[in-house]
Write a structure and sequence with these properties.
heterodimer, A: 100 residues, mainly alpha, Protocatechuate 4,5-dioxygenase, Chain A, globular, B: 276 residues, alpha/beta, Protocatechuate 4,5-dioxygenase, Chain B, 8-stranded mixed β-sheet, two-stranded antiparallel ribbon, 35% helix
């Protein structure tokens, strides 16, 4: 299954993105969102993200997060906590075209 | 004895809930959506179902990839609202129907469908962006939610969901107590949230899909996921959820109402069907 310009969320993606996605899922809790926003890097390290993953979030590299295995439904939770819109995320990830 | 008295297919989207809460019912862009729900709302009020069985998908709000169910059935007394990451909406919890839901669990498993059985099923916009728009009758009728994995591949096939609907119908018809059941399926329609095709949607396919759901569901059931994603966008694959609703309606159906409106960059479809 392949569609140009699209990342299909396969088991391989889910496996690669597990930690990043788990961190994003934790943001469905309001207290966690507050802790994340107060100190993003510390919160993410507490959730066992590696340096590359932390850097992707600090840079607001939405496209990079998807390439790292982030689920779009979870990446938008990170965006929401940081005050970025779904539209910003979508537009940023449109660069995926170039490599497909 | 219980019976299926009707079916509703609807797009779901966070934007519907947001627009509803902001009071955009008469807004130029949103009025065609919300006024399009009115005939279905009146039909539902007149039908007075005892139970809504709703096929939908969770969007990483109740379930995570630590243990991701392909089919999940909510058997609890109450279905609370999930926090999707930006706080909860001002909506009441939904009532469940544990007696029917446990019967459904037994019947489905005997029928070789094996759902994950959930006594605590928080529900998200897959249900809650649609139900308030269908009115107080919809919000106060007990709900049995059935969540389908349309996010982490491998996904169930369209045909599998069509057959699941048939199994739900058999369960309804074998329930010993009275229930007049309205079956709903929510998903899509075509949309793409990421990548080169971000913002893609396909009104022609959306409308063809609504034609075929009504008259030729077998044709849709035969489509592989690749075709759904090419025609309707990667995330638009959730349109396959409507097939479960259609399967539960059985053979021929009669259209009660249909609407299609494009409030933002995605088309929102609504279809109400009665058994013929």
């Amino acid at each position: 299954m392949q569609i140009p310009g699209t990342i299909i969320f396969t088991g391989e993606q889910s496996r690669r993105g597990y930690r990043l996605n788990r961190m994003a899922m934790s943001l469905t809790d309001a207290a966690n969102r507050a802790r994340f926003v107060a100190d993003e890097a510390a919160y993410m390290r507490g959730m066992a993200l590696d340096d590359d993953e932390v850097e992707l979030v600090l840079r607001r590299d939405w496209r990079g997060m998807l390439e790292q295995g982030g689920s779009i439904y979870l990446v938008i939770k990170i965006a929401g906590a940081l005050g970025c819109s779904i539209q910003e995320v979508g537009r940023h990830t449109s660069g995926i075209a170039e490599r497909a | 004895m219980a019976q299926v008295i009707g079916g509703i297919g609807s797009a779901h989207a966070p934007s519907i809930g947001a627009a509803w809460d902001k009071g955009l019912q008469r807004d130029d862009r949103w009025a065609p959506v919300f006024s399009g729900f009115e005939p279905a709302k009146h039909w539902l009020e007149a039908l007075r179902p005892d139970l809504l069985v709703i096929f939908y998908n969770d969007h990483m709000n109740r379930f995570f990839f630590d243990a991701y169910p392909t089919i999940a059935l909510g058997v609890g007394e109450v279905h609370r609202q999930a926090d999707e990451g930006w706080g909860k909406r001002d909506l009441p919890d939904l009532r469940g129907d544990p007696d029917f839901a446990w019967h459904l669990a037994r019947s489905l498993v005997a029928d070789e469908f094996d759902p994950t059985i959930c006594q605590d099923m928080a529900v998200d916009h897959g249900i809650l962006s649609v139900l308030p728009v269908l009115g107080d009758a919809a919000m106060t009728t007990p709900v049995v939610p059935i969540a389908i994995n349309v996010i982490q591949h491998p996904l169930p096939t369209a045909r599998r969901l069509f057959r699941l609907g048939g199994a739900v119908r058999r369960a309804i018809e074998s329930f010993p107590a009275d229930r007049r059941v309205l079956v709903m399926g929510t998903g899509g329609l075509s949309h793409q949230l990421h990548g080169a095709r971000y913002g893609f949607f396909n009104p022609e396919w959306d409308n063809r899909f609504m034609d075929l759901i009504e008259s030729e569901p077998e044709t849709l059931a035969a489509l592989p996921h690749q075709d759904w994603m090419e025609r309707g966008g990667t995330e638009g694959v959730e349109m396959i959820i409507w097939l479960a609703m259609r399967g539960a309606l059985g053979g021929a159906v009669q259209r009660v109402h249909r609407n299609y409106a494009v409030p933002t960059a995605t088309g929102l479809g609504l279809l109400a069907l009665a058994p013929a």
